[in-house]
Amino acid sequence: MGGIVPKLAHHAHMRNLPEVVREAIQKAGLGDDLSKIDVVAVTRGPGLAHCLGVGLNAAKTLAAALNKPLIGVHHMEAHALTARLTTADDAQHNSEPYISATGAVNYAPVGSDPYPSFPFLTLLVSGGHTLLLVAHSVDRYTTLATTVDDSIGEAFDKSARELDIPWLPGRAGGPGASLEAYAKGSKSPTRYLDQLPIPMSLRKTKREMKFSFAGLKSAVTRAVEKEKKAGQGIMDEDKKMDLAAGFQHCAITHLCQKVEQGLRDCQEQGIQISSLVISGGVGRNATLRQKMEEVCANYELETQKKTKGSEVDKTKRVRVICPPPKLCTDNAVMIAWTGLERYQKGLIDRYDIDIAPKWPLDMLGSGVVPE
Hints:
Blueprint: H1 6-27, E1 40-45, H2 49-66, E2 70-74, H3 75-81, H4 83-86, H5 90-93, E3 120-125, E4 130-137, E5 140-146, H6 152-162, H7 175-184, H8 214-230, H9 237-268, E6 275-279, H10 286-297, E7 300-307, E8 310-317, E9 319-321, H11 332-344
Parallel strand pairs: 1-2, 3-6, 6-9
Antiparallel strand pairs: 3-4, 4-5, 7-8
Helix pairs in contact: 1-2, 3-11, 6-7, 6-8, 6-9, 7-9, 8-9, 9-10
């Protein structure tokens, strides 16, 4: 459909969810013994109200019928915490990779303190959100920066449509992934950089903790219109690839600048960041991951360690952590894992909880959920 159609999504949820639950129970090998289920976790918000309602009602019914605890999960917290399931601690696990040679995910063992340890930075980049957060603990987050207009995922998607880039097939496809693939074929990636701005990079705005992609998206539209006018309504494929590469460069540079600023701000505030977690659908982008590795490789976080009454300066690297690509987009694993983390903290909800279509992550832990 070229995007989400709320009414169709609502009906698809109602049509498919019962079979999905049945299949999950079968594949888990529970048979008829559902007493083995410990807790029911469900997305409570934010998101589309009607779709959230279908899921929440199903979870309430299942939890009540089985007399099991119910946990309503914040969608954004789930993205932030997924890395604590999929990442091994280098110090304890000899740098064990979290994706094996066969492509299987090596999940970190469930313990009292999964890795990465708190506090850490989370860059949440998706079709609906662009957020830079400090994760202080389960149920406690501080937003450092959010978008003032479009999300980065929306900018990727709409720029891909402007360029008439065909979607890649499958669940991992879509316009954003297609643009990334097109950009890899560019032979002249700097061709359009003089026409494309790096958002919030002027001296007066560079230190502002804000994301903005509307201007960059509009610049892509103008460049496409200019090329089509010169080419009698047609844009050369090589130029499409070059413009895709230019857009991607500017968008990712913008993210890198704000992450750098966020690291500096945390250090000034005495927040000892252990790592940078990149999550959300755009977190699948290989170029984004590579550039963030470069940012953190060039950044040393100053720490102090007391030794026999004296203070000795130490430095440590901020590690970049990305869940496996298949767990970057919205998925049930991240909700289940967050449900487990909250359950272990005793954060259990009543059966009468309601959906929260708009729910700032900063409000989590305050006891207040917007209606």
